[in-house]
Amino acid sequence: MEVSPRRRADPLDGAPDPEDHTPDAIRARLARGPGRSYLRDLVYGAIDGTVTTFAVVAGAAGAGLDPSIVVVLGIANLVADGFSMAVSNFLGGRTEQQRRRRLRRQEEHHVAVTPAGEREEMRQILAGWHLAADLRERVLDAITQDRDRWVGLMLQLEHGLPSSPSSPVRAGAATFAAFVAVGSVPLVPFVADAAGLVTITSPFGWSTGLTLTAFAAVGVAKGLVVEQRWWQSALETTALGSAAAALAYAVGVGLGGLA
Description:
- It contains ten helices and no strands.
- It is elongated.
- By secondary structure, the protein is an all-alpha fold.
- The chain has helices at 23-31, 39-63, 67-113, 115-127, 133-144, 147-157, 168-183, 188-194, 203-226, 230-258.
- The chain has one domain.
């Protein structure tokens, strides 16, 4: 009977790789600390940038404006709206940081003033883990021996805060970069036409096609990162993005008819 050679586990098939779970590999991975993902910020910026720029294009097309005017309005939107979104995301992250510091001070005060009450809170939290009573008390004793660890767990388990928050600066930068990079796609035909690089008879038609392509590309990239079927992710992102783009187009055409 022929024995097939050992195949390295594919992370997409759900089978863990034994080489990633050796003591040395685990030690090295934990020493790096928890990872911080900015995928949400990238997807948020990419989709919003594409939709808002397409809204400018749709409004300009509905009003019958010259392609050069569309380019000016689109670039103004990319810079101003992209920066506004980045600042908003940054301030949202900063608010979470400030809330985290306030809750930490609050929990440290509670542990110092009413340690018995805080122990009871932790005891009831641990009760949800369905541990045996004697084991639960031993775990509780181990946790409460270290005040920093105690407070840190209270922040996570009582207040639902992540153990390793993301950086507001990086989150804002990721949003702005994705907004400008992907949001510029609907403008490409108008830039090419206004600059005289090529003659495009229907810049808006090309812009619509490129916008749908951008939605699909963002979906594919997201699917690869989160290990979702790429075509499902692409369809989801394209459908939702197209709905927003269609709404922008309808408003643009409606306002253009009033102009």
